[in-house]
Design brief:
The protein has four helices and no strands. It is mainly alpha-helical. The protein has one domain: Four Helix Bundle (Hemerythrin (Met), subunit A), CATH 1.20.120. Helix 1 runs antiparallel to helix 2. It is elongated. The two termini are 24 Å apart.
Amino acid sequence: MFGGDQGIVLELLHDFLENSDRRLAALSGALTAADYETVRREAHFIKGGAAVLAAHPLMAAADHLEEAAKSRDPAKGAKRLRVLEGEIVLLMNFCRQLKK
């Protein structure tokens, strides 16, 4: 997809992860406020970024959160957000390993 250009991939990873804290905070706040449209939109954005990065477990976690937002179930949303947060931590750890 990127013609073997590892630099582009690393830049995309960096940009994605740099915005993750803000997106996770927006998701958490939206869940607390029962703003399911914002939850759906933010989860969809993360899903798209994860797809570009071929981060399939992260993409699936974002998809599950997006579906939870559609069901408007706060308990399910909170659970799915925790899974999503865990997948982002795994991606961060993977990136740290790439730098070594």
